[in-house]
Amino acid sequence: MDGVTRRRFMQSATALAGVGLLHMREMRALAQDPVVDVAKAANHAGYEKVQWKVKPFPMSQVKLLYGPFCEMQERDRVYLYMLPNDRLLHTFRLTAGLPSTAQPLGGWEAPDVELRGHFAGGHYLSACALMYAGTGDEALRQKADELVEELAKCQQRDGYLSAYPTAFYDRLRNYQPVWAPFYTYHKIMAGMLDMYVHCGNTQALVVAGRMADWAANWVDPLSAEQWARIQLVEHGGMNEACFNLYAVTGETRYRDLGFRFEHKKFFDPLAAGDDKLAGHHSNTNIPKAIGAARGYEVSNDPRYRTIAENFWHQVAEHHAYCTGGTGATVPLSKDDSEGWHTADDLSNQLVPSAEECCCSYNMMKLSRHLFGWTGDAKFMDYYERLLWNLRVGTQDPQGMLMYYVSMQPGYWKTFGTAYDSFWCCYGTGVEEYAKLRDTLYFHDDSGIYVNHFAASEIDWPEKGIRLTQRTDFPETASTSLAIHAEKPTRLALRLRSPYWCQGMAVKVNGKPESGTQNDGYVSIERMWQTGDRVDVELPMRFHAAPLPGNPSLEAMMYGPLVLAGLMGRDGLTEAMIYGKEGPSYTGQFTDAPMPRVRAGSSGSWAEKTSTDSLRFETAGKSAPMEMKPLYEVMDERYTIYFQTERSA
Predict the structure, then answer these.
(1) pTM for this one?
(2) Residue 141 Cα distances to 148, 388, 458, angstroms
(3) pLDDT digits (tens, 9 = 90+) for 267-282
């Protein structure tokens, strides 16, 4: 432990003793090993009651090679460096009564916006911690450590920390309008926990624990009736943050606080298997379901598992577009402006604000938990659909991020700006592109799961195995894996067999290999040695995706990729694409007709027009429309769904 780390540890240990966050034996363990992995710490202490059937590799053991994922990561890294700490700290310091002469950030981080602090003190720290976990970027870690140190100076004696005053909670208690103070509080706690888990910053753990203590003291006096009414205001994943804090400390009061944050109005129908999502705002509630998953893992309460699984099936199978996305902002009534609608009916939701990027991020997080419990490829199939259609392609070449992805014909993608946006989806975006490697590979005791096809390398030192995956997927419908083994090693290599693949073919050292199939994976178990090579062909096929509620409207997919029909750039300006206040559609042509196509006998109405690139056009149309993957669309109008006529 170097001098700076030791000094910070001793400061943290003193504070920890003051609030009773950790037992002395745990503090001594931290002193010996300040970088503590959450899973290892929790498993050692026995706080995780449910072990995953298949487990992710630490991000430090996964390397991104040159390709789209690596490019997205590096754009994100540049953006994280662009944001000065003093500007991120500005509103925290003012709220704490400390001086600040920094230029305020704009958008949702502006000094007069009630959600201020969610990005600067929360998402940003999580993104830096995740980026460090994967890349080992010490300079970025130091920048984030310094931010934690300065935020700790803003924490009040009672543990409260935020960029807005406690008066917001007075309004919450009195049922007066206020913009989601516990949502922001959750983000800050999560950022601190990520800094502890991934960077070993014990001061961040102290801050998170004291924040939780303040929240518990605020909630404790409330009656069940009062609390139920207050919970109608968005409170993010407070349950998840509290369960995560329990998982690294073993302090049952944090677990119990997570239980207290259960939103019974939302959870009870899910526990009963009833789809009552209509009327609930999507991104307000997905984090609660992730919290249910964590609640199951730290308590082994089967009710929480049922809630998480039922929620996933309801959203992924009954409230999602062809992209896998959800979260349309469509008026439900004059008093309720956002929410899910009836299951299996998106017919009135082809709107500009159709898919909130936060929802995609959070559904991927939830899918990861369910995959860990089961090893079932269907969760990775859904994850992949979101990954390639709503994560790839929602970051522009300069690293700017999106809020919504439009589903209305003739509209376009809109992005924020570097210092004047900071929507919720900016926060989840900087986290996503910092951790693109975290789900590529999983493992059990006997083998590696290759979940996704991306240029990357996985090192498994416990087995003496290194696996290098080289691919241009999805530009090329194949991948190749090379084995390096310290000595001949028996291992099962499990390759996901995607639902969209038309005749997946595997060769080992040039010879066809059928393997065995289980839970959507082709497993090849053998004695591997250095120089072994596995080549996988992943033939893509066209498959139509009817719109739930109106099957005559279809999207066309090629493999996992949603294809977008290109509708030109007429009238588009930079100001229309990049907006400070939110997605801007000024100058849109609202009467753009739904394009019409006629399906042939095969059911497909698209055809590939290039042998060496992902270029397509509609078939069965007098004037073919050019098409390309949605993730490649940037500064042009497009459509996803088409009015389809079928031959009798």
Answers:
(1) 0.92
(2) 10, 29, 23
(3) 999 999 999 999 899 9
